[in-house]
Amino acid sequence: MTILERQIQLLDKMAAERYAGNRSACLRAAIEDHAKSLEGENEFKVKQLVTAVQDLEGKIGDLQESLQENLEEKSTDEDLRKISQHQSKDSGRQSRIYDLIRSQGSISLDQIASQVDGSLVELKSTLQTLCDQGLVSKTRSSGRIEYEINMAGVSNDE
Questions:
Q1: Range(s) of the domain holding residue 116
Q2: Is residue 120 within 8 Å of residue 109, measured between CB atoms?
Q3: Cβ neighbourhood burial of 148 (10 Å; 0-12, 13-18, 19+)
Q4: Per the structure, how many domains does the chain have?
Q5: Containing H/E element for 144?
Q6: What are phi and psi for residue 107, nearest 5 degrees?
Q7: 92 shares its domain with 158
Q8: Is the separation of the CB atoms in 158 and 152 below 8 Å?
Q9: Which helix (H) or strand (E) segment is 69 a member of?
Q10: What is the rounded CA–CA span in Å between residue 40 and residue 18?
Q11: Of 70, 76, 141, which is closest to residue 105 (Cα–Cα)?
């Protein structure tokens, strides 16, 4: 058997580090390890690792989907809650404005704004909703717009 000088130096180094200087034990271990590689044992271990990594990728994907679904559900719940709160506020504002108009007979936007909470835009929107529902009508009196109860849309029960 012929071993090059470079390989002898490498053998001496490995034997000193791992086999208490025993060159023969180092050579036997190297031959056994190489035989396992040739028989494919290492390929099997690599395939096992590849399968384990693929399983982890699948689990990570499932977790990401689950997180995304939870985020979507949470934002949907929050959006519904906000819409419900807005509708509730608007419904309350509609009732207050309607009652105010009924008690005053005819009233301007400025007068409504002084007695009902909300921005002018919100109040105009609410008044427009009441008009669209046929409960309130717009009239012009003395050059300004006023709102009054639409008598055609009111039953005697009110």
A1: 88-158
A2: yes
A3: middle
A4: 2
A5: strand 144-149
A6: -150, 145
A7: yes
A8: no
A9: helix 41-104
A10: 25
A11: 141
Q: Could you give the CA distance from residue 100 to residue 116 in angstroms, rounded to a whole number?
A: 9
pLDDT, tens digit only, all 158 positions of the chain: 899 999 999 999 999 999 999 999 999 999 988 888 777 766 777 778 888 898 888 888 888 888 887 776 665 555 555 545 555 567 788 888 899 888 988 888 888 889 988 888 888 888 888 888 888 888 887 788 889 898 775 544 44
d(Cα 1, Cα 24) in Å, to the nearest integer? 14
Residues 43, 45: Cα–Cα separation, whole Å = 5
Residue 54 placed within a domain: no
Question: What's the rounded Cα separation, in Å, for the pair 100 and 123?
Answer: 13
Length of the chain: 158
* Residue showing tokens 């009110």: 158
